[in-house]
Amino acid sequence: MMRARPLKVALLGCGVVGSEVARIMTTHAADLAARIGAPVELAGVAVRRPDRVREGIDPSLVTTDATALVKRGDIDVVVEVIGGIEPARTLITTAFEHGASVVSANKALLAQDGAALHAAAEVNGRDLYYEAAVAGAIPLIRPLRESLAGDKVNRVLGIVNGTTNFILDKMDSTGAGYQEALDEATALGYAEADPTADVEGFDAAAKAAILAGIAFHTRVRLDDVYREGMTEVTAADIASARRMGCTIKLLAICERAADGESVTARVHPAMIPLSHPLASVREAYNAVFVESEAAGQLMFYGPGAGGAPTASAVLGDLVAVCRNRLAAARGPGESAYTRLPVSPMGKVVTRYHISLDVADKPGVLAQVATVFAEHGVSIDTVRQSGKDGEASLVVVTHRAHDAALSGTVEALRNLDTVRGVASIMRVEGE
Amino acid sequence: MMRARPLKVALLGCGVVGSEVARIMTTHAADLAARIGAPVELAGVAVRRPDRVREGIDPSLVTTDATALVKRGDIDVVVEVIGGIEPARTLITTAFEHGASVVSANKALLAQDGAALHAAAEVNGRDLYYEAAVAGAIPLIRPLRESLAGDKVNRVLGIVNGTTNFILDKMDSTGAGYQEALDEATALGYAEADPTADVEGFDAAAKAAILAGIAFHTRVRLDDVYREGMTEVTAADIASARRMGCTIKLLAICERAADGESVTARVHPAMIPLSHPLASVREAYNAVFVESEAAGQLMFYGPGAGGAPTASAVLGDLVAVCRNRLAAARGPGESAYTRLPVSPMGKVVTRYHISLDVADKPGVLAQVATVFAEHGVSIDTVRQSGKDGEASLVVVTHRAHDAALSGTVEALRNLDTVRGVASIMRVEGE
């Protein structure tokens, strides 16, 4: 039954993920062959620094000329784990033009140029798989593209960045402030020396773009995703969330509008109830909660990063793509047929939790309530506390358009009796 | 791009799941066509009672002759949602022989005759998909078969029966006894009039057999699965679990032995730590926790039953099978190449939590400890409490072979000073 010709794999990048992919391809060669129906062979490894020792990799396979490798013509599958936009983009399109299918873990590239890459795969009749690009080892792209292909997804709510979840979990469990928790994350290797991409939500925004596109069968680019980082979340915010029976998570939220005619995608910190399955996602774990019409509420949980987990996702794709090649078939391509527009953040319907520092005198609450009413935002609860002439008001709103909510906050800032807006946090997952 | 010829689907069974499949095929016809690349058409619906009104289904499609329907020869996909062994088994093999692929939700049949059905699909070059057979809407078969195809699964730990999870969750949250919680489950429609298949673990055992086979690429039949129901779990057991920082769940557990040379599959109630992700699975939800070599710990969560969720899984399979037919390709078939033997329960390595009613006199603990030592079972903790000449001992063991643990319990029963074994519960998920 086993084909004589092995399938040839070119590996672009041999860092944390790439070296793990190469290792598993070697140590689990027999298992992979059994699952694919033919052996797979590492045919070349493109690296930047050829002199670095790479344990278990035949030095004769190592090259610095990635372009020549993807142009060889005998490569069945190119595995791209370089990351970033260039040279990854050009290498992937060149690979398609020379007959290879592609497995990629590149979220930034997929979020920015997914449509063009899918088109290149389509034109050349090849596969483009990228399970590893979102939430590491967690099967998510395949369940959304395939398992839920007969259902209608209305909402995706995800913790898709492990660094920020580790920081927020530490803040929640120890009462630490942001900087202290970030320092611990850095010390433990959960945060990079420059944590900007994580803590400012850029990484999560790229994943949100990919998830929204797949979930709603439409095109969502990175620029379409509203983004707020979590560097301004304070220990006081976390304590406030606790008092409401909530915790704070950095969420990627993709929603279909109530009228079904548009979608939104956004990343920001939000309060979610402790009873929500996402609330119990600890440390650097990721989890994605999916709401669909027929299936109801699903959640996918696991490690969102790391060499071995990401390699697991890459290899799952590699097996699928190799099987498709043997069958001269293709997996599902891009599905963007719904062509739904992406609405701006102002159109999102959500709730706010707002803490105000106010003057401790009669009539303040009435003034504040009037501002909400003027903006058409209905108040759910208000909590007042005060001492020594200082007072604070915590207002939780009902659901309203984000534009109305931010308009309300702007107007509150202009009230003489409001000394400051201590925090604003959206409330999700209810 | 759209093929003119629609793909023809025969639906066997039109109960809670079947009618939902038919409804979605009609209401979401354009979406399904876009995802498949061709329209799908309901070509026939086989039912037992043709006179029952079936809203939204063309009466001319309804037949009582399921055999004639699957033999028609123009059917692309047969969707079997009858359940049970016969006539489902014969209809499925007949469908393969007449050129159709099959989507089934039939856990009992797959657990008992999966190998024969896969062989029939293989011989005829057709697909057999059954995502809906395990844990309803939760994508599980596809992630295990495909997403983790490049990884090595070592353990699957699942809450795969919603009825028993509802009962145990009620007992845990309200302090109710088994019967009271069962009555509530029945009143709310979560338990059937005869709850035997659920509460005695038969339903979960079928799912464990299917999961073990797919996870370990070996053949596991229903008879290979050790099974204990949860009817004897008491409010006192739940309280005991709480004192240990645990809760009690009915678990389906599939494990690869430490030496990798055999596998086990079992269903029984067990204590799991409250910090384990499965502990927070409430009400009738299902969740499956997967441990693999590279990916690490993954969890899949969602509704495990119900018409619409099960239909979602069926339709996901239907889209995949239809796409395969258009491409003249096949999805992954059965993968049982590892041919690992299934070890009996005695070989399982686990921990016990044992409550003993003992005489309140000196030396009892020494006697009991001696029995454990004689059987090679190491004690982790002992808690003694007593009053009025009665006393109880709660012993938690370290990990040992299940055979040694049950041998220990037998010997304890024969001690004069042990008046009774109040409860025995395995401890998992640590």
From TrEMBL, chains A, B:
Its EC number is 1.1.1.3
Q: Which GO terms describe its molecular function?
A: homoserine dehydrogenase activity; metal ion binding; NADP binding
Q: Known Pfam families for this protein?
A: ACT, Homoserine_dh, NAD_binding_3
- Name the cofactor(s) required for activity, per the record: a metal cation
UniProt: L-homoserine binding residues:
E192
Enzyme active site:
K207
Q: Where does NADP(+) bind?
A: L12, G13, C14, G15, V16, V17, G18, S19
Which residues does the annotation say bind NADPH? K107
User: One of this protein's GO BP terms?
Assistant: methionine biosynthetic process
Q: Which residues form the ACT domain?
A: 353-426
Q: Which domain of life is it from?
A: Bacteria
Catalytic activity entry? L-homoserine + NAD(+) = L-aspartate 4-semialdehyde + NADH + H(+); L-homoserine + NADP(+) = L-aspartate 4-semialdehyde + NADPH + H(+)
InterPro entries xref list: ACT-like_dom_sf, ACT_dom, Asp/hSer_DH_NAD-bd, HDH, HDH_cat, HDH_CS, NAD(P)-bd_dom_sf
So, what pathway does this thing act in?
Amino-acid biosynthesis; L-threonine biosynthesis; L-threonine from L-aspartate: step 3/5; Amino-acid biosynthesis; L-methionine biosynthesis via de novo pathway; L-homoserine from L-aspartate: step 3/3
Mind listing the UniProt keywords for this protein, alphabetically?
Answer: Amino-acid biosynthesis, Metal-binding, Methionine biosynthesis, NAD, NADP, Oxidoreductase, Sodium, Threonine biosynthesis
- Tell me its family: Belongs to the homoserine dehydrogenase family.
Its function?
Answer: Catalyzes the conversion of L-aspartate-beta-semialdehyde (L-Asa) to L-homoserine (L-Hse), the third step in the biosynthesis of threonine and methionine from aspartate.
This chain's protein is named: Homoserine dehydrogenase
Organism equals: Streptomyces gougerotii
**UniProt lineage:** Bacteria, Bacillati, Actinomycetota, Actinomycetes, Kitasatosporales
